[in-house]
Specification:
Helices cover about 15% and strands about 35% of the residues. It is mainly β. Strands 4-5-6-7-13-12-11-10-14 form a nine-stranded antiparallel β-sheet, with no helix packed on it. A five-stranded mixed β-sheet has the order 3-2-1-8-9, with no helix packed on it.
């Protein structure tokens, strides 16, 4: 079985941070659509009925983050095979394994795993996401983040 294996600060599977949109297209095929964010200057491309989203930087158009939503299965985080239906137990395992984890409104950032998650403690799979990010996208010094108590 092929997994969307998250490699902290490297990427997910063959999708490595730093690749260009054209390289992503070779790996995944043509995106469903693309959206330019005028506030951040980043471009997000969408695949798998919007369940897989790749964000590219404004300066050099390199891949900086990969988001996955509940229609994406076979996700692997370290030794954990992720299941959207049991996401709260996975969340608690991640908290125990990562003392560097921090939070902001609706998001928990796990620096050890290079991911930011949302909605994993809730019941609605449609509200859940996992985003793998490249170095520098989140830092513990971010004033929006606070330690998890």
């Amino acid at each position: 079985m092929n997994y969307y294996e998250i490699l902290p600060y490297v990427g997910i599977g063959n999708l490595k941070f730093g690749i260009s949109p054209s390289t992503a297209e070779v790996i995944l095929g043509k995106p469903k659509f693309s959206d330019f964010n005028t506030d951040t200057g980043t471009t997000t491309q969408y695949w798998e009925n919007n369940g897989l989203q790749l964000e590219f930087s404004k300066d050099d158009e390199n891949l900086i983050s990969i988001s996955m939503y509940s229609n994406i299965n076979n996700i692997k985080i370290s030794d954990i095979i992720f299941d959207w239906n049991t996401s709260s137990s996975t969340y608690n395992s991640l908290i125990k394994s990562d003392p560097s984890a921090m939070k902001t409104v609706g998001i928990t950032v796990f620096f050890k795993h290079g991911i930011a998650v949302a909605g994993l403690l809730g019941d609605d799979n449609g509200d859940k996401s996992i985003t793998a990010f490249s170095k520098g996208q989140w830092t513990p010094e971010d004033p929006c983040l606070e330690q998890i108590l």
